[in-house]
């Protein structure tokens, strides 16, 4: 009897150790973290959301970072990324969302136009024209054309903060912006391209200020400099209108960037059927991460692997 008791205890102990070792290898998803950062460049307090990928419990891993604008509407997009990463369609990366201290997704509509537009808009008063309470107003300073200062905030305040606080792979940074966010991404690509190594540009407002973004692109190509980045641009097919010409403009930009070889620059463009300006952002992001990142060849939801 003693022999069987000892064997039983040994097997129980072995099983417990095996379970403990397996538990150590299991992945978990930390809670979303939120920070308020006041920028000296913009005179604005930003609400920064940090979404973590599934990861080892010992905190030993480091991750690339995807920065996105319009984070007040970004929680569903971040949740989608967990499924995409878990299914092996993209590697695991952190997401850092830049938003505003407001109560609803539309609350930053006025100040986002200031931060994301590269040039002043004639007649822009920076006031709320939407029939919604709780929209953050601009009390003083620029009401448009604030992209240079917003980019300084990202480069000199936000990125150092994230790299210091979290286990990031420094230098492996991606950007996602949609509409005016896409316009800001193009401004960054042609003025400070080294800020990010991957650009996901959704439905960019290229028509803004007499197609300023196309002028930036032409100036860059004329300079003889090379881009070193992966770029994905997309738009919904139903976004093509006489006023905005969204699809036409991304075709024009794609062709311009392909007009001379740049060995370390890779671009793809896609027009998404049946989608409008308000239905396409999530698809822009999903297709974008599949294009600017390499597949890890590992679906941890199915297999538990953690490549």
TrEMBL record:
<dbReference type="GO" id="GO:0016788">
    <property type="term" value="F:hydrolase activity, acting on ester bonds"/>
</dbReference>
<keyword id="KW-0378">Hydrolase</keyword>
<dbReference type="Pfam" id="PF00756">
    <property type="entry name" value="Esterase"/>
</dbReference>
<keyword id="KW-0732">Signal</keyword>
<comment type="similarity">
    <text>Belongs to the esterase D family.</text>
</comment>
<dbReference type="InterPro" id="IPR029058">
    <property type="entry name" value="AB_hydrolase_fold"/>
</dbReference>
<protein>
    <recommendedName>
        <fullName>Alpha/beta hydrolase</fullName>
    </recommendedName>
</protein>
<dbReference type="InterPro" id="IPR000801">
    <property type="entry name" value="Esterase-like"/>
</dbReference>
<dbReference type="InterPro" id="IPR052558">
    <property type="entry name" value="Siderophore_Hydrolase_D"/>
</dbReference>
<feature type="signal peptide">
    <location>
        <begin position="1"/>
        <end position="22"/>
    </location>
</feature>
């Amino acid at each position: 009897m003693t022999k069987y008791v000892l064997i039983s205890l040994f097997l129980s102990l072995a099983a417990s150790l095996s379970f403990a070792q397996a538990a150590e290898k299991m992945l978990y998803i930390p809670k979303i973290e939120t920070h308020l950062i006041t920028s000296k460049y913009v005179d604005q307090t930003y609400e920064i959301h940090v979404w973590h990928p599934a990861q080892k419990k010992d905190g030993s891993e480091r991750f690339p970072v995807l920065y996105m604008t319009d984070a007040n509407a970004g929680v569903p997009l971040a949740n989608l990324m967990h499924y995409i990463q878990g299914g092996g369609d993209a590697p695991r990366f952190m997401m850092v969302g830049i938003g505003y201290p407001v109560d609803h997704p539309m609350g930053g509509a006025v100040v986002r136009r200031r931060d994301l537009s590269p040039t002043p808009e004639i007649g822009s008063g920076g006031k709320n024209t939407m029939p919604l309470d709780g929209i953050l107003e601009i009390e003083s300073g620029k009401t448009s054309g604030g992209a240079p200062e917003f980019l300084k905030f990202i480069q000199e305040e936000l990125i150092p903060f994230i790299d210091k606080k979290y286990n990031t792979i420094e230098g492996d940074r991606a950007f996602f912006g949609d509409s005016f966010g896409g316009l800001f991404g193009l401004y960054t690509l042609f003025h400070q391209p080294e800020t990010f190594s991957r650009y996901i540009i959704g439905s960019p407002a290229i028509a803004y200020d007499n197609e300023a973004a196309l002028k930036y692109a032409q100036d860059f190509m004329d300079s003889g400099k090379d881009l070193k980045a992966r770029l994905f641009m997309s738009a919904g097919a139903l976004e093509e209108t006489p006023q905005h010409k969204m699809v036409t403009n991304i075709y024009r930009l794609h062709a311009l960037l392909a007009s001379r070889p740049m060995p370390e620059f890779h671009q793809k463009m896609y027009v998404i059927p049946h989608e409008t300006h308000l239905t396409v952002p999530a698809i822009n992001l999903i297709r974008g991460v599949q294009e600017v990142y390499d597949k890890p060849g590992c679906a941890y939801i199915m297999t538990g692997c953690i490549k």
